[in-house]
Design brief:
It contains 6 helices and 8 strands. The chain is α+β, with helices and mostly antiparallel strands and 174 residues long. The strands form 2 sheets. Strands 1-8-7-4-3-2 form a 6-stranded mixed sheet, with helices on one face. The protein has a two-stranded antiparallel ribbon with strand order 5-6. The mean pLDDT is 93.
């Protein structure tokens, strides 16, 4: 699957919202103004950025409070709108490369899923070593915000937990 990349400058405001259980994190996302935000910095210089509104439409009605999540490279101004499938495919490749490290990655994703802040265990994230795909840091920090987006879009449903089944199955297969 190709990457959905836009090469364009973007006006970003720095924003910090610590991860939290789904309802609390979603409420914080809903309360922010419409614009672009730099929400995470990564060791390789890339940033996780969000834009609000995100453009999600459910049954033809726009979800005005949702967000879009991108990995931004400030050096070449590339915005990559990363997806669930791209992250899952990357994690699968990492697990095939090194099942032991792959399990550790899934455990750290689960900590994030459960509302823990990735920066609180950043050393564990940065100690993961893979030759394939994106850095675990970008994947985990992007997923923090994608899961927040899912909780905004589906507050009465599964939200962030809808995508988790594939990771649970992957973990159990290792």
């Amino acid at each position: 699957m190709g990457k959905n990349i836009y090469a364009h400058s973007i006006d970003l405001k720095e924003l910090t919202i610590p991860n939290a259980p789904r309802k609390e994190f979603a409420e914080r996302i809903v309360s922010i103004e419409y614009r672009g935000y730099e929400v995470e910095s990564c060791d390789d210089g890339r940033k996780i950025v969000i834009t609000k509104p995100g453009g999600k439409s459910v049954f033809g009605h726009p979800k005005k409070e949702d967000i879009q999540v991108f990995i931004f490279n400030p050096q070449n101004k590339e915005l990559w709108q990363i997806s669930h499938k791209q992250i899952l495919d990357d994690v699968i490749a990492k697990c095939e490369e090194n099942p032991v490290e792959g399990k550790k990655l899934i455990v750290l994703l689960e900590k994030t899923l459960n509302g823990e802040e990735p920066n609180d265990f950043i050393t564990e994230i940065r100690n993961l070593s893979f030759q394939t795909g994106e850095s675990p840091e970008e994947l985990i920090k992007a997923y923090k915000w994608i899961w927040g987006q899912e909780d905004v879009n589906y507050p009465s449903g599964e939200g962030r937990f809808l995508s988790w089944g594939a990771y649970k199955e992957l973990f159990e297969s290792l």
